[in-house]
Write a structure and sequence with these properties.
Length: 299
């Protein structure tokens, strides 16, 4: 504590090293509390998946034991062998992956130009168009499922990859347009103008200049489409009927029978189909978060 005299009245100033130390300790406590709370929330969110993982490697006697135990007494991987060899999981994984990749490609092809045009060009009814695009994303899938089924039936597209890719692309294009628009707003229009001056056409400038800069946004949009297709059950169960076209969510539902649920196969199947989205997100998380922050700041 020291006294500073300004010529009128003495002013007492408190602080110094002791105050800074107290403030530093308070900040450390706040950071520790934040991490503890976030850790508890993460544990709460991950606990069902961890329990499924534990159940998938238990022998049947441990699964049916009461009271249940989290840690298996004996490890076994026979349930994974069962779902991969008997329950048709490889075919379902192939179908889901193929439909997801085709949907990502078609969605980006249709959404990228529209997102860039609405981000960098002014035209009449632009706001109305953006609102209409957003409004279509609010329509529940189940409300248009019957008309889509009748159309697909008349076009002989039932139980084909084509109908799934078209429906998923139509459902995800509005959301992808808004995600990419927010990211395109962060790219300076001068870059395209400079490419045009150098002799590029508008399409060439968009393809060789704008899209490479938009890779984080494209990765984020691809991840959103992938997760949507991977987790969908309603559309695929309505538009497919044969086992050869079965996707993962339908295959998971098939494990629930009238006589009960084989929890060993069910949890093994669940863990197997959960890993691909997790791996994809971990691989793209930096670009995914970068794109979302860009859209939040500029969209």
């Amino acid at each position: 504590m020291r006294i500073a005299n300004s010529g009128h009245a003495p002013i007492v100033r408190a602080g110094g090293t002791r105050g800074r130390r107290a403030l530093g300790r308070l900040q450390n406590v706040e950071i520790l509390f934040t991490y503890v709370v976030l850790g508890l929330f993460c544990l709460f969110a991950l606990f069902p998946l961890l329990w499924a993982l534990s159940t998938s490697v238990k022998v049947n006697a441990d699964i049916l034991r009461w009271p249940p135990t989290f840690f298996p007494r004996a490890l076994t991987f026979e349930h994974y062998v069962s779902v991969f060899t008997v329950k048709g999981l490889p075919r379902a994984l192939l179908n889901s992956a193929l439909v997801a990749l085709l949907t990502i490609g078609l969605t980006l092809v249709t959404a990228c130009p529209l997102a860039y045009v609405t981000a960098h060009f002014e035209f009449r009814l632009k706001r109305q168009l953006l609102f209409l695009i957003l409004a279509t994303a609010m329509v529940p899938s189940i409300s248009v499922l019957l008309p889509l089924y009748l159309i697909a039936q008349r076009l002989a597209l039932i139980d084909t990859y084509t109908v799934l890719v078209l429906i998923y692309s139509a459902a995800m294009t509005p959301q992808v347009v808004w995600v990419l628009r927010g990211f395109f707003l962060t790219i300076a229009p001068d870059l395209e103008q400079a490419a045009r001056i150098d002799g590029c056409s508008r399409f060439t400038a968009f393809w060789h200049v704008i899209l490479p800069l938009a890779r984080p946004g494209l990765a984020a949009a691809s991840m959103l489409v992938f997760v949507y297709v991977w987790n969908d059950f309603l559309i695929t169960v309505s538009m497919t009927s044969s086992d050869s076209m079965r996707m993962i969510q339908v295959g998971l539902a098939k494990l629930i029978s009238d006589v009960g649920v084989s929890w060993s196969d069910y949890t093994a199947y669940t863990v197997a189909i959960t890993l691909p989205p997790i791996v994809a997100f971990l691989a793209l998380q930096r670009r995914f978060l970068q794109s979302l922050m860009s859209g939040a700041l500029k969209g």
